[in-house]
Amino acid sequence: MSDNELPTVKFGVNLDAFKQARTAAQALADAGMPEALAEFDREFQQAQRLSRQFVLQAGAKEVDAAQKLESSLVGHSKSRYVPTGTLQGSIKPEISPDGLSVSVAPHATTAQVKQARGGKADGKVTPYGPFVEFGTYKMAPEPFMKPSGERVANELKGDFENTVRRAIE
Fold it and tell me: Chain-wide mean pLDDT for the chain?
């Protein structure tokens, strides 16, 4: 199992629409309105800054929501999974180099879970999150990443609209 098989929630901001706006601002500047390009540059810088802040906040909200859901629901039903806190604590955000997207995933391994239960790690580094999220032939699935991601995505819709409005004020 590789990291790309981890149950992952991703949020990102696409600023491609600004390419058209830049073209229009350049045309206005070429037509004798140089302030149009300067205004575009200010708004674009603001949009980038606010988008990066938005992505950081989205990642933090998702980590919080996934951790809360994992601790309150996982292991309390039919799966026979006994929570140790290792999985919950392994849910971390990874911000893209440009700061415009975030991926949140649980990075706990079976070795860490064995150690948390007082056992001896066998050296295998197998991600544990997929077993809980998707289940195994021995364990029913107990999704925590997908439901938390859906909940946070719904919350973020209005937040992003406000971010866009602030960028073009």
Answer: 85
